[in-house]
Structures are given as structure tokens and as C-alpha cells.
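Listing 4. Sequential folding, example run.
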Amino acid sequence: MKSLRWGLVGAGDIARKRIAPALRDIPGAEFVSVSRSRAKLAASFAEEFGARKWFADWREQIADTEIDAVYLATPVNVHAEQTIAAAEAGKHVLCEKPMALTVKECDEMIAACSANNVKLGIAYYRRFYPAVIRAKQIIESGEIGKVSFAQINAFEYFDPAPDHPRRWFVEKEKSGGGPMIDFGCHRIEIFTNLFGTVRRIEGIVSNDVLGREVEDTASALFQFESGPCASLTVTHATPDSMDTLDIYGTNGAIHISVLNLGEMTIKIGDTITKESHPPAANFHEPLIADFADAVLLDREPKVDGSAGREVSRLIEEIYEKGT
């Protein structure tokens, strides 16, 4: 197999902006089909992005022998069902984040993919950000000394009206929670990528500002087996947007003011250096390219099911301790 034939399950905003263009454009990928419950929209999406087929029922799509892998760009509450069904149909699965609603579902997804000898990847695309890769290199080199503390603030105002197409993001049964599970999960993956296993975690979760069924603001404190402590704060309840990563060591620090831009300030002793490591124009492209490569070379993707499960485990614990 010289190329990976893809089926895209789901055709919402992210699929349109990033996933479909990546499936269409990256080497080693062939965009075969898309599914969406609204048939007319599925058909127009397929035509727009050059997919040969469209389906109104994702179950019919995963049964199609023309596809080797599926990208699940669907709400988190159906990830487990769709992953297990795809694995049983012999399809490799790249699943949107967060991996699932519960750790139990994550385990079921991993087991199904293992039993059917297919790859499972989770869409934590910030693993491939050059700024994150560079920060990890600096940490591992010891240039800033032993890391003592790291901090991420991720603020994004979001309070959708009842008829908003993304309203499901604040409906707990569908989304699993608010900003912590929505985009906090990306930041937790950054922490586990940089610092490894979490020894201890504490959480605070609040819905007192926007008064809805999921949290509008949450904070978590982490202590890692490798030594550092870290804090993460996320909120939907302020228009003051933030996307920061700060890492402090015994001999210096790393400051990234906007993760999605990749501008870095590195302080080592008395020397201050500024570097620029912007992400790919399409954030999803390196993730999808790595997954395709993993399938074609029969290796594990860099962000596999176990990485996704660990993030979901930590989120589950934050919610348990924070409410």
C-alpha cells in the first residue's frame, strides 16, 4: 500500500478548515469519502474537497472496502462507538480530541484497535508544534537547569445561544464538560509530553459566571514524577484571549506568549534570546502526515491511544476533585 485511503466521518467547522484540506493535500494520503447525516451537505462537501464518495450514514462508510483509515471529526460522545465499529471493520482510526467521555471508553477503544490490528491515533496536534518541540529540546538539554514550575493560561470566550450550531459544546451529555475537556485537553497533553507521568493532581471547577451545566472556568495543579509542578487555567468567561506557556527552571526560563504563533523568549542565566517557531499553516497537517506514515511503515503514531487515554484520565480526575 503506497498511499492511505481516507474516509472522513463528520464535516463540521474543523473538518472544513483543516482536516479535509490536509487529507486532500498531504503526500501519502488519498481523500476517498466523507459522511454527514445531512445528505445534501455531505454531497456538497465531497464535491468541494475532491472526495470521490459521500455517505449519509457513517456505518455504510466504514464498511466501504475502498478506505483504509477514518478520521473521526465528530462530537466526543460518539467517539467510542465509532472507533470500535471502524476497528471491527478493519479501518485504522485517527480520532479527534478529547479521546472519549470516560477512561472506560478509552480502554474499550484501545482494546478494539489492538484486537483488530489497526492503528489508533488521537488528534493532539500541538505535539507537532515546532515551539513545543524546541521547548522540549531545551528542557532535555538542561540549559535552563532543572524545571521547577510551568504554567499555561488558555482563555477563549464562548457562550453560545441555544440555536448556535456549536451549542453542543456546552451540553454535558454530548461534550463531557466545558473548556477543560474542550481545549484544556490540548494543554494537558503538552504538559505530559514535556514532563511525563503525573504524580498528583488537584482541580477546581466552576460554572458560577455563565451559569450553565458545564464549567465556564477551571484550574488544575499538577506534580510530575520528574519533579516539576505546573498549573493550568482555562475559561470561556472572559474576552481577554490568552494562549500562554511559561516554563521556569533553576537556570532560566522559556516564555511562549501565544502557542499558536510560536514566538519564544528564552532566558538562560543573564542571556535573553528570542526565537520564532511558527506551526504549520494547517495545524492538523503534521498530525495526519505522521499517522499516515505510521500506518504505511507499521509503527505507532506519535500521539497514540495511550497518550489520549492519559489526558482523559487526568481530565476525569480534575472533574472528580474539582466539583
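-- end of first protein; second protein begins --
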Amino acid sequence: MIHASLDCRGRVLELDRPRIAGIVNLTSDSFSDGGRWLDRDAAIAHALRLVDEGADLLDFGAESTRPGAAAVAADEQIARVVPVIEAVAARTSVPLSIDTSHPDVMRAAVTAGVGMINDVRALRADGALDAAAELGTVVCLMHMQGEPRTMQRDPHYDDVVGAVHRFLTDRLFACQLAGIERKRVIVDPGFGFGKTLEHNLALLRECARFAEIAPVLVGLSRKSMIGALTGRDDPLARVAGSVTAAVIAVQRGAAIVRVHDVAETRDALAVQVAIGNAVALRKAQAPRGPWDDD
């Protein structure tokens, strides 16, 4: 792990154990829960419930980025998300994140209480890099091939792991040139964003490669790759597969998992951490031989 904590504008997210980001979609067309939390009071209650279930971070979004999704204007995103962020920020101390690529939405969300920008375009939109540098937040840089409306039309890579690694390294360098400190940057390989099932599996197997450059956030929850692997067409039926994928991602170096099903993921990671701690303790207490100093 590159560093031990993320300072989200005064709300610190320690990375001493796997952390869970709970998803709060204020959208009408997200692939899994579109429309469920459009009502302001329902969204606030959902966010606070995720904290009670064990979320260490809340990620708010007002524009779907599923394949084929339509764009949502910045003023509409702001109208949807800012009142909810303000209310939640006043009632919980966990760090808050905004899932957007638009500089105006970034600024409005940070004013409302957000301390992290989670951008599927890795701050490539006009003005986004400067806005993130100005705002002083943590930023999550995600890889995406193409745009949401077209990204799943025959994605191709000669070497998907190498291509994603180079892209994220280049974007990390761009952040540094813009004045964004390395300790404020995390990365996301972008599962399902311009990738086939085989691409996604390769990225999951090699997740540790990305942890070499920055802490890794992964978003696998309820995605079509889970449906393809389990035969579950209904995203709401993909909980077990999603939790398993989150555990595997953490085993392979992920620091944060972004999920819909917080309580189930929390329980699975608690077991994983306990087993890992027990193994480490047993190794530390094992008798040392004369060869151990070699």
C-alpha cells in the first residue's frame, strides 16, 4: 500500500484494513438501482443506512455511466445531489465522494461536504484537472476505453493490464503536474468500462500491479461480469457473486471496494481480515531457526 490514509478534506479514511465505499445513486437509469433513491428523503435514509451497515465512505452520483447511458446536465446533477450531500454530511462523519466528470458538479459537491472526486474519465474533461487541484480533494482516477454510450462496442486491447497500467500512470503524472499531490490520488482499473469479461478477469487477477502505483479502488458490485460468471441476469440476484469478487480483489491488493451491498461485504471482509491476522500472528510466533537470518 502506497500510504496509510486519505485526507478527504478533514475526514480521514485510514487504509489500515480493507475499506468499503457504499453507492448512493441519485439516478433514474443506473443498471442496478436506477430510480430507487431519486426522492431526496429516500436517498438520505439510504445513505445513512449504508453507514450503519458498515460503509467507511459514501459515493454519490447523479449521472449513470452504464453502457448506453444518456448524459445528464451539470445543473441537473447539482440539483439532485447537493441537497442530499448537505443533509448526510451534517449527520455522519464518514468521508463523502462525488461520482462525476463535470467541474461545476465537483465544486458544488465539495462546497456541500464532499472530500473525494471519483471520476470515470480520470479528470480528462475540460477544466476537471484544474478544478480538482483547486479543490484539494482526494481524487480517484478510473480507466475507461471510449465513452459510456459506446464503450462496450467491441472493446479491444493487445494487453489490457499493460494498457490500463500505462493510462493510470500517465494520469497520475498529469495530476502531479497540475499540483495534485500523489498522496491524494487513488486509481480504479475500471471494470466493465470498455472491457470484455476476459479483460475484466485479467485485471482482477493482476490487481496488485495497480497497487504498485497508488491505492486501488475497485467497482465490481452487481456488474454484468458477475452476471456472466454466475448466470444471474437480475443485478439484484448478484449479491453473493459481488461479495466474492470484492474479497478476491482485496486479496489481490485492492484498498477500497465500491459496493451496493455493504453489510454482506463487511461480514465477508471481517472474516478475511481475521484469518489474515491469525496467519500473520502464527508466522510471527513460529520458532526461528539458524537459517532465518540468511
